[in-house]
Amino acid sequence: MIQVTKSYKCFSSIRDGHEDADVALRARLCWATLHSLLNSQISSYRHHGYIWLVELLLSEISEETDGSIWSKIQKLQDEIEVAGSQDLSSSEVSLPVCLLCGLLKSKHNFIRWGFLYVLDKFLMRCKLLLDDNDMQEHTVADHSKHRLDKAFAVIDIMNSALLLVVQNNETDHINILKMCDMLFSQLCLRLPSSNVMHMGGLQSLGQLFGCTTKNIESHLETLASHQNVGNKNFCRSETLQDISVNQTAQTTLLSETSMAALLLRGLAIAPMQLVARVPTSLFFWPLMQLEGAASDDIALGIAVGSTGRGNLPGATSDIRAALLLLLIGKCTADQEALKEVEGNEFFRGLLDDTDSRVAYYSAAFLLKRMMTEEPDTYQRMLQSLISKAQQCNNEKLLENPYLQMRGILQLSNDLGVQ
């Protein structure tokens, strides 16, 4: 049956492609069977359908037909975009893509989850296929040159598909978390344990995106000279989780923890070239959709007896914090992305978020932007904040970016400054 569906992958081939009515009827029956499996109430049936559909999607780019594998990937990406914007029966769209995108139309969240599952498996197989193709067509010296192109090709397919999830306004938190997990898997790279970075404030934000931190460090030196608060760290222990783990624990984290948790703990990085490739909405939309669920996770963690803030590694709170870091990285590199989220006002709103890390990272980003774009205003506000801290005998106003940003915003309100 799989072979039959591989031979008849578009509406026209079934309707007009064969003179034998029995063959056409069998093709229709095979496609109807696959549709029934994918939409079945029984999970094992759906799983068989997922395997079948992944094979069909893979055949779209692997079959020996005219055109390179790159042109086939582009064609598949175009079909996914078309399938999301018009009637799925369009002759421009192959039946495998129609069935894949059709899963998102279901009223059942577990059927819609199948879309993400199939996409995830297909992206993994697509990577392997591109690796094999690279080994056959290029010399060893060319591998590094084509590595980024392969990553871009996979990410572009993922972007087109996940944008359909956003367009359909998915409401199920499990499905949104699956979507986020796919994002992190494609964008983040695990670091060897010897290269582990410890998250400790603004310095780490640049390192997470594989870029230089000289500018950030110079701002920190300036800030420290004005604050005169000794060896106090910008990061409070209750704001960021303690990640001083031994070698054995690091190995466990690398092998078992979600990519979002690894990113937050400095055990993974997100190359800026890949982050820049992803539409802003794929970071912004799930960040806001999961806002309430993060608090539920923390409450659940406390209820089951976990330590600290009750947050379980890789849970919704970690997902949102990691999404925000990726969004900050994109907005730092691309002013258009910042405009898409309504600029600084959006990040000011996140200062009131129930997740302390989300508030902290937002404050760090706002403070960095103020240092860079309004240095004179920042110095003036900082001097006023220092004076206020001395009058109140409250050095906590200067301890970290969150408290500083809160103090600066309060001063701005008092002085009537926008």
UniProtKB/TrEMBL annotation:
It comes from the Eukaryota. PANTHER family: ARMADILLO-LIKE HELICAL DOMAIN-CONTAINING PROTEIN (PTHR34958:SF1), CONDITIONAL LOSS-OF-GROWTH 1 (PTHR34958). This is Os01g0974300 protein.
